[in-house]
TrEMBL record:
Residues 15-374 form the tRNA-guanine(15) transglycosylase-like domain. GO terms for biological process: tRNA queuosine(34) biosynthetic process. This is Queuine tRNA-ribosyltransferase. HAMAP family: Q_tRNA_Tgt (MF_00168). Its EC number is 2.4.2.29.
Length: 379
């Protein structure tokens, strides 16, 4: 089967925003795109049918660390890979688990070979190396797989960030070597994305971009941002990386962010995003809408019988009222979490779809300003 390809269709004349198409063996992805996070092979509280028909997701994420621990590669291989296991037959991307090893796992020890860590589930000890992380992602069977990297914390000292970046680059070489030694398991092409690191040091970020670009991978990711640094700094380094990564390959900013973060980073030349925010915040009562952000638990919605979001094409957004959704949250009903998750994910996908239309129309920069002001309002 064919390797991933990226066609750049339009670039906004007043910003760096781009509209393109990523082609994978499981279908096309229109960019800019937001990818719902399905950490353990499931987007929380949302079925695959709802993801396709209401959210209109084009690609979802899985996570190597979590899927390796549960259900394990033996189960995934017996099923025929994650696509067959969870019934999602569009593109899938897997994060390598590097971030989870550094954020969730206990008693981790970083060495040249890889990272020894304890499972957050049962305390069992494991080793993640570039080689076995590639093997695990082969077993999962995602269309886009991520290189194993070290994500340094914010803030980091310059010396540590430089050492960490060099280790990430050496691990990347081993990832490519391992993939060259092992065939795709399920008859379609898996595409490796390297990850730019370098913390918040411009010279290191530029060096990392240059090293990653030299690999001529199918696409490139920007890691180590949205880890606690100020928002303006995140924008600064996203822009720096976008400027120094190849224009003919998709650029993926990992773990970002709010709806207005997406709009700003699209204007910097970023093509792909993922974040747990729409589902996590939705489960806590924060609802993103075309008119602004609302806290559905607030008593002001108790007798508001207007639909959740009339500006959305999503059926769920136009069926349930704000008052009913508030009632579900106050009563502790699971349906409330599902409705909120569908609304927020649908909104994110609607937003990047609108961004794409305005990039193609040539008025993205002016549209972004008005849309940002509107959706940031607290209702």
């Amino acid at each position: 089967m064919a390797a991933l390809s990226f066609t750049l269709a339009h670039t906004d004349t007043h910003s760096k925003a781009r509209a393109g198409i990523i082609q994978t063996d499981h279908g096309a992805i229109e960019t800019p795109i937001f990818m719902p996070v399905g950490t353990v092979g499931s987007v929380k509280a949302v079925t695959q049918q709802q993801l396709q028909e209401e959210v209109r997701a084009q690609i979802i994420l899985g996570n190597t660390y979590h899927l390796y621990l549960r259900p394990g590669t033996q189960v995934l291989e017996a099923a025929g890979g994650l696509h067959a296991f969870n019934g999602w037959h569009k593109p899938i991307l897997t994060d390598s688990g590097g971030y989870q090893v550094f954020s969730l796992a206990a008693n981790r020890k970083i060495k040249e070979e890889g990272v020894v860590f304890q499972s957050h589930i049962d305390g069992s000890r494991h080793l993640f190396s570039p080689e076995n992380v590639m093997d695990i992602q082969r077993s999962i069977g995602a269309d886009i797989i991520m290189a194993f990297d070290e994500c340094p914390p914010y803030p980091s000292e310059y010396a540590y960030a430089k050492k960490s970046m060099a280790l990430t680059h050496r691990w990347l070489d081993r990832c490519f070597a391992r993939l060259a030694e092992t065939p795709d398991k399920y008859g379609y092409t898996q595409n490796l994305f390297p990850i730019v690191q370098g913390s918040t040091f411009p010279d290191l970020r530029k060096q990392s971009c240059e090293y990653i670009a030299s690999k001529e991978a199918a696409g490139n990711a920007i890691g180590g941002l949205s880890v606690g640094e100020p928002i303006d700094m995140m924008y600064e380094f996203a822009a720096l990386c976008a400027e120094n990564l190849p224009a003919n390959k998709p650029r993926y900013l990992m773990g970002v962010g709010t709806p207005w973060d997406l709009l700003e980073c699209i204007s910097l030349g970023i093509d792909m995003f993922d974040c747990v925010m729409p589902t996590r915040n939705g489960r806590n009562g924060m609802i993103f809408t075309t008119e602004g952000v609302l806290n559905i638990k607030n008593k002001k919605w108790a007798t508001d019988f207007s639909v959740i979001d009339a500006g959305m094409p999503c059926a769920t957004s136009n069926f349930y009222s704000k008052a009913y959704l508030r009632h579900l949250f106050v009563a502790g009903e699971i349906l409330g979490l599902q409705i909120a998750s569908i609304q927020n994910l649908s909104f994110y996908l609607w937003l990047v779809g609108q961004a794409r239309q305005h990039i193609i129309a040539g008025d993205y920069a002016s549209w972004k300003t008005g849309m940002t002001d509107k959706i940031k309002q607290r209702l």
